[in-house]
Specification:
Strand content: 5-15%
CATH class of the largest domain: Mainly Alpha
Largest sheet: 4 strands, antiparallel
Distance between the termini: 109 Å
Number of helices: 16
Number of strands: 9
Structural class: alpha+beta
CATH topology of the largest domain: hpI Integrase, Chain A
Order of helices and strands: HEEEEHHHHHHHHHEEEHHHHHHEE
CATH architecture of the largest domain: Orthogonal Bundle
Number of domains: 3
CATH superfamily of the largest domain: Intergrase catalytic core
Length: 413
């Protein structure tokens, strides 16, 4: 056995169904294997645990001849041999890496063990982020090999959608933390740490008094001519009258409605169980909706499947906004509008927080004001304001309006 040369490797051929080997004297166990296919590969044969006949023999492929030169392969063989003399096992490490879990595996376990504990909307959002953003980029990546630079490039790639980019980063970070807990990744190596989140600027849009008048007219017009359904109109009005979240209204069930006490008792919401206060005007809308939904489970049932709730209010809302010439207003902005009306009518921060179902006081700070009216009164103030805005000026001139105030009710007669 002599030191390998390029000429010897070029001349080497398998010549049959079995591979043929040439060995190098410069590095123990280093050689080249010629395959029947004509391909030639640099290899390193060694024994684990420092050698010895009882130790397991390994065949470590260094690379393909042509892609690597002989000198390059010999240098890599020396590095591997040095690792072996220190007790290392490069082929064993490679085999473990090949069998190591991928991010797809982490998501599958997360989806089975962790996701069912989340609220339905959170589950939906996580699945959308995984399927749309994370899985196409990292699904087949090894959990152990994901680096901070990989995550940083991924996150920065969505700088035009900062909110979604940050949500994707948060989900990735959770998967990496769980991977450490499952011993799929070295402890304390979460690659999402120290990746700077994008600044998120909260967007708050309120409907003005003039816009409310146009909104009321468009809701009446479009529901009358069939452009939107009466159910869609009632849902939009109830969102505005209560300041509730979209999902809270669309998934509301009749058994939760207590018209006598003016409350929609939600068993669960973003902040847990909470009451949604119903003004006199909100009760009118609900009674109107009752004549449509009848004995169905949901207050706003789906037209295609009455056993399911109304699913898509955004299309009717877009039609209403176009007709009312209202720009850049989301359905969620109806919640902000309800709160702004409560402020204008003198409601306090605690009352607005209670009215909107905020779990933390700082969430309500954007509506800063001082007063001490109870929440149901605040709901009625909102209803009064909106009802007035929705009523055409001619009708208001003809109507005799008398406001009767008690400790918890405002009536328009």
């Amino acid at each position: 056995m002599s030191k390998l040369t390029k000429r010897e490797i070029d001349a080497l051929e398998a010549g049959g169904p079995a591979p043929v080997f040439l060995w190098d004297e410069a590095v123990p166990g280093f050689g080249v294997k010629a395959l029947p296919s004509g391909q030639k590969r640099f290899i390193l044969k060694y024994r684990t645990d420092g050698g010895g006949r009882s130790a397991k023999q390994r065949w470590y492929t260094i690379g393909t001849y042509g892609a690597l030169t002989l000198d390059q392969a010999r240098d890599l063989a020396r590095q591997a041999y040095a690792e072996i003399t220190r007790g290392g096992d490069p082929q064993g490490k490679r085999s473990l890496l090949r069998a190591a879990p991928r991010l797809n595996d982490a998501w599958a376990r997360f989806e089975k063990e962790e996701l069912p504990r989340k609220k339905p909307l959170t589950q939906r959002d996580y699945k959308a982020i995984w399927n749309d953003l994370i899985a196409p980029r990292f699904g087949t990546s090894k959990v152990e090999t994901l680096a901070r630079s990989d995550i940083d490039r991924f996150h920065k790639g969505y700088r035009d959608a900062p909110y979604r980019a940050n949500r994707a980063l948060a989900l990735l970070s959770r998967l990496m933390s769980l991977a450490e807990a499952w011993e799929w990744r070295s402890q304390g190596t979460n690659p999402c740490k120290h990746v700077a989140r994008f600044e998120e600027r909260s967007r708050t849009r309120y409907l003005t008094g003039t816009e409310l008048k146009r909104l009321g007219a468009s809701l009446s017009k479009l529901s009358t001519d069939g452009t939107i359904t009466q159910t869609a109109r009632n849902a939009i009005e109830l969102l505005l009258l209560t300041g509730a979240r979209l999902n809270e209204i669309l998934t509301a069930q009749w058994k939760w409605v207590d018209l006598k006490h003016g409350v929609l008792n939600l068993p669960d919401s973003k902040t847990g169980a909470k009451p949604v206060y119903l003004s006199d005007q909100a009760k009118v809308v609900l009674k109107r909706q009752k004549s449509i939904s009848g004995r169905k489970l949901y207050v706003f049932p789906s037209a295609s499947d009455p056993k399911k709730p109304f699913a898509n209010l955004r299309k009717p809302w877009q039609r209403v906004c176009v007709d009312a010439k209202i720009n850049e207003v989301r359905l969620h902005d109806l919640r902000h509008t309800a709160a702004s009306i409560a402020v204008s009518q003198g409601a306090s921060l605690p009352v607005i927080g209670r009215l909107l179902g905020h779990s933390q006081a700082q969430t309500t700070q954007r509506y800063a004001h001082v007063d001490s009216d109870p929440a149901l009164k605040a709901a009625n103030e909102i209803g009064t304001f909106i009802s007035t805005a929705f009523t055409p000026a001619k009708k208001r001139a003809k109507a005799k309006v008398r406001v009767k105030r008690t400790s918890d009710v405002i009536e328009i007669i």
